[in-house]
Each structure stands twice: as structure tokens, then as C-alpha cells.
Amino acid sequence: MISRSINRPILINGKPQWQEEETRFWRMARNVREDHMKRGFRNEIAMSELADIIRKGFENGCKYCKSGLVLNNSYDGHKCNSITVDIIDPNRRVLSKDNIQIICYCCNQAKGRMSEEEFKNVKWY
Predict the structure, then answer these.
(1) Is residue 75 part of a domain?
(2) Which of 6, 57, 83, 95 could form a disulfide linkage to 69, CB 3.0–4.6 angstroms apart?
(3) Which residues constitute the domain of residue 109?
(4) 39-76: pLDDT as tens digits
(5) How does strand 83-87 pair with strand 42-43?
(6) Count of domains in the chain?
(7) What CA–CA distances, in Å, run from 25 to 22, 86, 90, 117, 124?
(8) Does residue 5 sit within a domain?
């Protein structure tokens, strides 16, 4: 079972229990898009698609080390298993469905600017 850092009560102000978590996926998607556009990346993905990719990645865990991912507040700092959006090929400078993946903070930091193929060859995980 994947660990989650959010306590999900049955109802939040009369809304279903998934509402708080769902809102955080959308907030993360918005922040990722804004951050990458500020850094000169071309955006080719809708907010709904990006939020859905983040949600599915959260449910599946890190692609590389297979750890469960957690959503945490920015003031908490990053934990090793914090969810991050990684650009597969940073040289393309595009935010698109085929150029992003959801991985943990530690794997993202270790990967740095390496392409996915370069990182797979390192096999540190």
C-alpha cells in the first residue's frame, strides 16, 4: 500500500473525502506549469492532463525506486519520497505528456539533467 501524507476525513465542509487531495494535485499542476514556463519551457499540456498524470503517479509510486510517494506542504521541505514532476529530456525544453514522469524527490535530484536513458544506465537505485 502506498503511504500518503494527507489525513482524509470522511467529509470536508460537506465535500467528498477526496476533495482535499484532488485540490492539491491541481495546485501542484499549476505550480509545475508556472515554474517551467518561467524557465522558458514551452507548454503543450492541459492542466487537467497534468493533474491526472500527477494523481496516477502518486498512486503508482516512484518509477525508479518504487517507493510510495507523499504530498507535502512546501513549508515542510522536501522528503526523500516527496512527489516531483521530472522532465525526461530537459534539452527539449517542453512540458508535454511524453516528456514528463512522476518520481520521488531523491531520484529526481540524482537524475539531475541526465536523460532517462543516461539515468537508467547509472543503476544506483
Answers:
(1) yes
(2) 83
(3) 19-122
(4) 999 999 999 999 999 999 999 999 999 999 988 765 56
(5) unpaired
(6) 1
(7) 5, 15, 22, 28, 29
(8) no
Q: Per-residue confidence at 121, pLDDT binned at 50, 70, 90?
A: confident
Confirm whether 108 is domain-assigned.
yes
Strand 42-43, strand 94-95: pairing: parallel
Q: What is the pTM of this model?
A: 0.77
- What distance lies between CA 114 and its chain's CA centroid? 17
At 42, which amino acid appears? Answer: R
What amino acid occupies position 101?
Q
Instruction: Quote the pLDDT of residue 76.
Output: 64
Angstrom distances, CA of residue 88 to CA of 34, 68, 111, 118: 18, 20, 9, 10
Read off the CATH number of the domain in which 77 is found: 3.30.40.220
Strands (E), the chain: 42-43, 83-87, 94-95, 100-104
* pLDDT tens digits, one per residue of 9-33: 444 455 544 556 678 899 999 999 9
Which is more confident, 120 or 19? 120
In a domain, 11, yes or no: no
